[in-house]
Amino acid sequence: MKKLIQLHQTTPEQLVQEILLGVKGEIEILKQDFRPKEPEEYLTRSEVSQMLKVDLSTVHHWTKSGRLKRYGLGRRVYYKRSEIEQSLIEITPPIH
Question: Any idea where the Helix-turn-helix domain is (predicted)?
């Protein structure tokens, strides 16, 4: 059974305008919350070392201890920039 909708005192042009206004409003709301997904950036050990301003041996130690997660392709080792940034922890000043 089909539903029948009847509009009284509304012209087709008014209906189109109301629909367009509603759609434009929803698009504006989506634009405010929309964050395009950026591709993951992978860093080499050297790049992580430079980024964190530490020696390569420190990057190796942090990887072995589980502080940093590594990814490999063949013999190459990579780190995700987002995970490196997440691994940094906030240091709060001591309370006296």
Answer: 42-86
